[in-house]
Amino acid sequence: MSAKLPRHRTGDDHLDTRLVELLDEVGATDDRDQLFEILASAVLLAGDGAQRLDLKITNAALKEMRAAFHMFAPYRDVPKVTIFGSARTRPDDPLYTQTHDLAAALAEQGWMVVTGAGPGIMAAGTEGAGREQAIGVLIRLPFEGGANAFIVGDDKLIEMKYFFTRKLMLIKESAAFVALPGGFGTLDETFELLTLVQTGKAEPVPIVLLDTPRGSYWEGWQRFVDGEVAGHEMISRNDFALYRITDTVDDAVGEIETFYRNFHSLRYVGDRLVLRLRAAPARAELARLSEEFADIVDGRIERSGPFPPEVAGKDHLDLPRLAMRFDRHGFGRLRSLIDALNRLPSAPAGPSPPPTAAEAERIVEQERVNRDI
Questions:
Q1: Residue of 87, 40, 86, 34 whose CA lies nearest to 65
Q2: Residue 107: inside a domain
Q3: Is residue 48 predicted with pLDDT exceeding 90?
Q4: Over 80: is that where the pLDDT of 30 sits?
Q5: Distances (CA, A) of 365 to 70, 132, 323, 358
Q6: Range of the domain at 362
Q7: CATH number of 79's domain
Q8: Opening angle at CA 59, ends 39 and 367, nearest 5
Q9: Environment class of residue 182 by beta-carbon count within 10 Å: exposed (0-12), middle (13-18) or buried (19+)?
């Protein structure tokens, strides 16, 4: 029996057997390997002599994540966009109106809007989306009065103690992101999101930095990033393709919708990156793209059918595919490749819905299975 258990165990065969029996007793049938390892980690903590503070952090984080997963679960088949921004923005500020109008426009297109559920920009996003299409992930702070009036008491609201668990939930479920001007918290969320996409820890997604007309916040931010960060070669200027700065709601919505015009999703199969599309490019188009993006692709970009791991997982088998040997480093250039695919004459004429959180998780899980094989 022990040979069938995950590699991460307690180290005690008797305890491992009891954990298996516990899973049997609670009726766990799916993903037992993950549940077993969670239980094993708790047992190992008990034997580590961990300090009480360490245990409190672990306990609170696990409870918060479990509660958040449960809250998001009924809406996993609905595309979501997360809006970041200052809690201090007043209702009479043009930024408030800009956020309200953005959220309303996205909700009209079928998106749910995820915010931090507090005041300011978060309240504007919630109000604009409307209670039925708003989700709130609130941080517990001593100087804020809790959730804003537009979502307080809603079943789609969760409160969290830790910023790191909150950021996980603000990012994990969404297929698009918009950041409005804000303080340290907004910058932290925006930089973490950019870091995840720049390093390939998260899939490419549309990231919009939205200001008001004649606003200077993101232009000033760009000058700093350009002059100090890219200027000292701490990032590549190709990484500027990971986001779009604009001052109009129409451009922000257009950036999000255009990203999913042709691109659907990606996954790795062995040493190949596979891009799933809505429409297959023509051979001449692929030849031009192979030449243009030769700096990040070893060889040519080629049309492909589903690979065996995709077939085994029934992973969007109806979609056309491109396969390439990507260097797994130039993610800014990969975003530029996705943009180029969306602009091709062969691409669909209008926007398409993005993959939902449920689809995205299935893609990630199938990639994990492929790596294990």
A1: 34
A2: yes
A3: yes
A4: yes
A5: 19, 30, 19, 11
A6: 265-372
A7: 3.40.50.450
A8: 55
A9: buried
